[in-house]
Predict the structure.
Amino acid sequence: MAEFKETSPDAPLSEKTLTWIDNRFPLSKLFKEHLSEYYAPKNFNFFYFFGSLALLVLVIQIVTGIFLVMHYKPDAALAFASVEYIMRDVPYGWLIRYMHSTGASAFFVVVYLHMFRGLIYGSFRKPRELVWLFGCAIFLVLMAEAFMGYLLPWGQMSYWGAQVIVNLFSAIPFIGPDLALLIRGDYVVGDATLNRFFAFHVIALPLVLLGLVVAHIIALHEVGSNNPDGVEIKAHKDEQGRPLDGIPFHPYYTVHDILGVTGFLLVFCAIIFFAPEFGGYFLEYNNFIPADPLKTPAHIAPTWYFTPYYSMLRAITSEMIYALIVCVLAAAYLGATRANISTLLKGVVVGAAVVAVALLLAIDAKFWGVVVMGGAVVILFFLPWLDRCSVKSIRFRPDWHVYLYAVFVINFFVLGYLGIQPPSFIGERVSQVGTLFYFGFFLLMPWWSTLGQTKPVPDRVNFVAH
Amino acid sequence: MKKFLISLCLVLGIALPAFAATDMIPLDKAPNKLNDLSSLQNGAKIFVNYCLNCHAAAYMRFNRLKDIGLTDKQIKDNLLFTTDKVGDTMKISMDAKQGKDWFGGNPPDLTVIARSRSGQGGTGADYLYTYLRTYYRDDTKATGWNNLAFPNVGMPHVLWELQGQRRPVYKEVMQHGHPTPVFAGWQQITPGKMTAVEYDTAVADLVNYMQWMSEPAQTTRVQIGVWVMLFLLIFMVIAWRLNASYWKDIR
């Protein structure tokens, strides 16, 4: 416990108050540790705005969510009407609702950019593995949060989107149908589903999300922020133990982030006030039709932020299973002939491949689609152990790494685009190639990331004063 | 790398137009008159007189019409049925079962119909504007009416007295080596109370009203938005200079 401090009787009231609090709660200590004496690298660039922006969007979602819950009715007979009530009869209800609906999409925009930043600058590498793992968990919970929230307006797309995704769980062998029933609480998506999704959306998942965000930030502040050069700033400190290339987060990055927030709000508000539907991507047109369990829409597409994964789900057709079998066999062959492991382990590899092929053939392709979709998110958790390049940042990696990352990003966009479109033959083929590329990028990373000539990493960060 | 990107573009280039092809006729552009109060008021009148018998607009309150320049008294005298109050929503007495019996389907609520019908072909207003102007006589249908924008529609041509009866004229065009009928224009069978131009204007007003009704706050939203953007732009200059003044010491 810290020593009890006394203030002189003629100290100003503010000082007395702060001392009184500090003797009972580590206010000054927390402020110093996380803001005024948290040293962040001075060479942050544009991509470093998105962490604080994600926090801002989280706050926007929570605050607008609270006001929406005051008027929203989680009842299949009333939900749609209560949303229109918010849009019309609640003063500025339309603003609150648009902030929340645009906020959902904005959340994914900033989180995707935030993750991309981590990917290219190696922010997930030792010692920041836990920062990355907490972040991936946040992404996973965020997807569940968005999916469940999307049911609440009870429009056609809400209803049928939920129906399609929940039905996916029924593809799991043995437990699937019962699991889907457990999630829905009914044989079709209905009032019971709406009520439990509401409970998850407004209380259960936000609590988990907040806890994870706190863990993410505590872990980050323990190890310190990475930077675009991937250089450890703690390697060079001054006499007081402060990193030479570090600057106090407050005030330098607080004023910096205010600028970022303003830029973000310009875009965010432009969408809210001038294009809240955003061409049918943020608010889908079909969702202005009340949910009708008897009328299946001609084309059901998830919201844009899920579409890359939805594409991968649709890519796994019964034909694609054979392509997957070829991949498994090729991996087993390489493992058995080229890998530097004991004969026993090689036997295990071959055995596992035989079992995998048998399972691929025995279980319906739909199930493997679900596995691939889930795997596409889960694989992100393993990134810290997949990347074995000797340097962290893309800046000092071989040039072709940059191109590979570029193709990865383009591929992700193409998959996202195809996920919005109705199924087609060409789209299916492209998304199959895209899916193989996505998984190849990660699964082969331990091999390709070691290849090529890296550039010399500087001792200190590159910084141009502005 | 480049080859890969080029082939990707080619593949998507082939794929894209394939998605665009639909059965629907191209939509006419609905005139945007959201700031024209007399158009909105005329649209409201047509809506209440012609639509609000079978269709409800159950999320729309009558007294919201004050936003388009009407007074409580005007609403009460001209637009309300005797039993309604100005604070009521636009409900109807026809029930869902009757709708199903008479039209083969329950007439949808029209409050947000203009928003729901937006899509690749045009805005919801464009769709409604085209749809309400492409009815034609078709004696093979139970109602005696059919529609080019909504083939086999369940709703009869409610505005037929205004427009008169029409029939589409097709001409044969060679497509893929086969003679295919293509829509070429209209033939008026019986005259309506309105000329073609008057009818188009009336439908434009009605659609204008339905567009407004789908989001009554939309004009306010844009007005507030302009001020918000102005504020943010000015604030951005301040934030930029504040940031620069703090960071000038960092070398």
In short: The beta strands of chain A are 39-41, 246-248. Chain A touches chain B through 50 residues (CB under 8 Å). The mean pLDDT of chain A is 95. The first strand of chain A starts at residue 39 and ends at 41.
